């Protein structure tokens, strides 16, 4: 059956569409502005006032400066290492925990679960964690970025929920054939849980890619800085100086502006490019998390 | 549970019940690989979660790196007294509380509103596109977001340029204490509104469609349907997230504030966690800053419990 929509509802529909369009504009425009600004001629950009709808002039000098900057290159390399190594550690640890805690008939299962859930409410906080890492001798080593966050309890619980959803009969028939827990985990559980594992990889990897605070407190050696820490220096502390050595004194200030924009684009590009393809997996993960309530 | 049931059956049938010790022994043998798998996991939690909790003892000690946590001398509540008598104590409390209250007032309802509006969109493709775009800022690193903000709100930045078109004088937003909270909260909304709406949209999708049919037959328009079907349908999600928000009130993340504040804006921007960072990590005053951190956690836990209790009293929704 159909119902006629009232005038008020029509007006609201149009109003709603306009509102959503402006939301999209407000969300995207900062990125568009930065893209256009990064491609602009530095001198024209420095004089420009107002909203950008196309690049002012055209110049790739800023990108050249960013790509030639040794700190950006080192940061990129370090971040790729932290993301890869960190995600592998996360995945192994989370899978082991989730599998073990998803089995039935494990005597200490509930006590261990409680021990884990307690850490979601209580934690030692910043200073004791820092002192622990210091006492373990991990300060200023990659371990400080890889081990303290090896398991996210929230992700562990999501993965455990997914493992629990796999029919027990599959496992039982394998057990009759003499399979032990390692075989059941690697041959049955993991192949059947690839979607949730994909979500975990994405969440952990994006977390590592974007994190800066651990590196800020644990890393002293500039050669070990992840990209985000290099970005902080360029974007927040305004130190584009070491990238402008090639430019003449008069142009230096100007190109400093476009270098910032080019840095943002270079460092965010992987996420911006991958995002449309991966977006649905992220959402999928949130929904698994929400449904377990 | 199965073990217990078996015991009851055995006891009823007069068969001798297995002792607890023999149950555990059997369990350890049968599940030896399981416990082997749990070994690194438990070691991780023991070291990196319970280790720092033990380390919190230094809040009551005169901590020296050489002495370690155990051998440093006790000082009781001295650090806490120092904090309460600190001239900045009330400023830190006020800033922490106000930023949170603003977030509860503006940033908390924003995703709910967005989810309700998205729910009203008829064209599925358009809805998808809006959703995809609105989730994007969630994946941008906080450093880049802060970097963009610093640039946009600078004296010669985008925002001032636009304001200039309306004949307004440029404002140095990040140097003015009066602007800090607005910048912090509104950029937080920009980053989180889309992502935050997912959970409410998920809750809406579980509402029984026959409720809408029934409402329509009773003559309810879309506004009435939203008011009497959709909102009640997502109420438990709203309440649970609200309680969680109250619980994290004092633990305002320092990550974004550290990137945005400067001594000029400490007046409104300095919160407990940034103070702990400056005193502890930058100033190496470990015992004192650990005490401030502990104070923060205790208050947060009290707030969480309080919110949960009140919610339990006034509605049936609760966290535990």
From TrEMBL, chain A:
<dbReference type="InterPro" id="IPR035906">
    <property type="entry name" value="MetI-like_sf"/>
</dbReference>
<dbReference type="GO" id="GO:0055085">
    <property type="term" value="P:transmembrane transport"/>
</dbReference>
<dbReference type="Pfam" id="PF00528">
    <property type="entry name" value="BPD_transp_1"/>
</dbReference>
<feature type="transmembrane region" description="Helical">
    <location>
        <begin position="112"/>
        <end position="131"/>
    </location>
</feature>
<feature type="domain" description="ABC transmembrane type-1">
    <location>
        <begin position="76"/>
        <end position="278"/>
    </location>
</feature>
<keyword id="KW-0472">Membrane</keyword>
<dbReference type="GO" id="GO:0005886">
    <property type="term" value="C:plasma membrane"/>
</dbReference>
<keyword id="KW-0813">Transport</keyword>
<feature type="transmembrane region" description="Helical">
    <location>
        <begin position="184"/>
        <end position="206"/>
    </location>
</feature>
<keyword id="KW-1003">Cell membrane</keyword>
<keyword id="KW-1133">Transmembrane helix</keyword>
<feature type="transmembrane region" description="Helical">
    <location>
        <begin position="143"/>
        <end position="163"/>
    </location>
</feature>
<feature type="transmembrane region" description="Helical">
    <location>
        <begin position="259"/>
        <end position="278"/>
    </location>
</feature>
<dbReference type="InterPro" id="IPR000515">
    <property type="entry name" value="MetI-like"/>
</dbReference>
<feature type="transmembrane region" description="Helical">
    <location>
        <begin position="12"/>
        <end position="36"/>
    </location>
</feature>
<keyword id="KW-0812">Transmembrane</keyword>
<protein>
    <submittedName>
        <fullName>Carbohydrate ABC transporter permease</fullName>
    </submittedName>
</protein>
<comment type="similarity">
    <text>Belongs to the binding-protein-dependent transport system permease family.</text>
</comment>
<feature type="transmembrane region" description="Helical">
    <location>
        <begin position="80"/>
        <end position="100"/>
    </location>
</feature>
């Amino acid at each position: 059956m159909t119902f006629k929509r009232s005038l008020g509802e029509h007006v609201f529909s149009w109003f709603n569409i306009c509102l959503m369009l402006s939301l999209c504009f407000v969300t995207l425009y900062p990125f568009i502005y930065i893209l256009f600004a990064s491609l602009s001629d530095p001198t024209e950009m420095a004089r420009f006032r107002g909203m950008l709808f196309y690049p002012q002039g055209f110049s790739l000098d800023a990108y050249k400066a960013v790509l030639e900057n040794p700190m950006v290159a080192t940061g990129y390399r370090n971040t790729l290492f932290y993301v890869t190594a960190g995600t592998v550690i996360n995945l192994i640890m989370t899978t082991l925990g989730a599998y073990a805690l998803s089995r039935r008939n494990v005597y200490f299962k509930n006590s261990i679960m409680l021990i884990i859930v307690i850490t979601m409410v209580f934690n030692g906080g910043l200073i004791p964690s820092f002192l622990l890492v210091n006492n373990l001798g991990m300060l200023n080593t990659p371990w400080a970025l890889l081990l303290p966050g090896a398991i996210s309890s929230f992700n562990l619980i999501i993965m455990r929920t997914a493992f629990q959803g796999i029919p027990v009969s599959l496992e039982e028939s394998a057990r009759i054939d003499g399979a032990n827990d390692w075989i059941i985990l690697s041959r049955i559980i993991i192949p059947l849980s690839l979607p949730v594992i994909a979500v975990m990889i994405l969440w952990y990897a994006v977390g590592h890619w974007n994190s800066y605070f651990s590196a800020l407190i644990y890393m002293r050696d500039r050669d070990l800085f992840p990209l985000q820490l290099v970005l902080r220096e360029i974007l927040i502390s305004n130190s584009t100086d070491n990238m402008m050595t090639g430019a003449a004194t008069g142009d230096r200030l100007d190109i400093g502006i476009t270098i910032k924009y080019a840095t943002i684009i270079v460092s965010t590009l992987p996420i911006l490019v991958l995002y449309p393809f991966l977006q649905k997996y992220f959402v999928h993960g949130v929904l698994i998390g929400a449904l377990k309530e | 549970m199965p073990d217990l049931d078996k015991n009851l059956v055995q006891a009823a049938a007069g068969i001798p019940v297995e002792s607890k010790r023999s149950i555990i022994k059997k369990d350890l043998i049968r599940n030896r690989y399981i416990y082997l798998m749990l070994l690194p996991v438990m070691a991780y939690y023991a070291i990196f979660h319970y280790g720092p909790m033990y380390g919190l003892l230094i809040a009551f000690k005169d901590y020296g790196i050489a002495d370690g946590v155990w051998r440093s001398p006790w000082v009781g509540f001295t650090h806490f007294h120092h904090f309460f008598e600190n001239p900045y104590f009330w400023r830190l409390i006020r800033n922490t509380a106000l930023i949170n209250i603003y977030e509860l007032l503006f940033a908390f309802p924003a995703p709910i509103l967005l989810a309700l509006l998205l729910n009203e969109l008829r064209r599925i493709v358009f809805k998808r596109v809006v959703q995809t775009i609105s989730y994007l800022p969630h994946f941008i690193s906080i450093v880049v977001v802060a970097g963009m903000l610093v640039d946009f709100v600078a004296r010669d930045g985008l925002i001032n340029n636009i304001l200039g078109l309306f004949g307004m004088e440029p404002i140095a937003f990040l140097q003015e204490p009066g602007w800090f909270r607005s910048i912090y909260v509104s950029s937080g909304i920009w980053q989180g509104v889309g992502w935050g709406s997912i959970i409410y949209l998920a809750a809406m999708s579980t509402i029984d469609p026959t409720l809408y049919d029934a409402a329509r037959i009773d003559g309810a328009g879309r506004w009435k349907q939203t008011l009497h079907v959709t909102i009640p349908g997502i109420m438990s999600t709203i309440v649970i997230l609200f309680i969680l928000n109250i619980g994290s009130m004092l633990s305002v993340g320092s990550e974004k504030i550290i990137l945005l504040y400067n001594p000029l804006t400490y007046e409104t921007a300095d919160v407990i966690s940034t103070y702990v960072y400056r005193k502890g990590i930058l100033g190496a005053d470990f015992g004192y800053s650990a005490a401030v951190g502990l104070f923060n956690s205790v208050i947060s836990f009290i707030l969480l419990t309080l919110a949960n209790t009140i919610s339990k009293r006034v509605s049936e929704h609760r966290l535990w």
